[in-house]
Amino acid sequence: MSAAIVKRSLSIAGHRTSISLEEPFWEALRALADARGVSVQRLVGEIDAERGAANLSSAIRVRLFEAARAGELSRGDAAPGPETERVSASA
């Protein structure tokens, strides 16, 4: 599992923003959005609207933690799929 930070850009409330998360959090974010039947962009928009003064990346991590505690994410939900598969470096 890679702990490298991955930065991605999204449009939220009509504004472009960059979000930095570790890849496992991006995978879990996609899984939660799929489970709720919404896009990642919409889910991040909801988190953004409710976060108050918290940093957006931190608010996303907290939301994912809460979803996991509530059973909304199972261990298999965040498994890499075709769009998230990693390429292994050969030694």
Report what the structure shows.
This protein is α+β, with helices and mostly antiparallel strands. Helices cover 43% and strands 18% of the residues. Strands 1-2 form a two-stranded antiparallel ribbon. The chain starts with a strand and ends in a 22-residue tail after the last helix.
Quick structural overview:
This protein is of the alpha+beta class and 91 residues long. Helices cover 43% and strands 18% of the residues. The radius of gyration is 13 Å and the shape is globular.
Distance between the termini: 17 Å
Fraction of helical residues: 40-55%
Structural class: alpha+beta
Indicate the overall shape.
Answer: globular
Order of helices and strands: EEHHH
Most strands sheet: 2 strands, antiparallel
| Number of distinct helices | 3
Name the poorly predicted regions. 77-91
Number of strands: 2
Strand order of the largest sheet: 1-2
Estimate the mean pLDDT confidence: 83
Beta-strand residue fraction: 15-25%
Work out the radius of gyration: 13 Å
List the helices and strands and how they pair.
Blueprint: E1 5-12, E2 15-22, H1 23-36, H2 40-50, H3 56-69
Antiparallel strand pairs: 1-2
Helix pairs in contact: 1-3
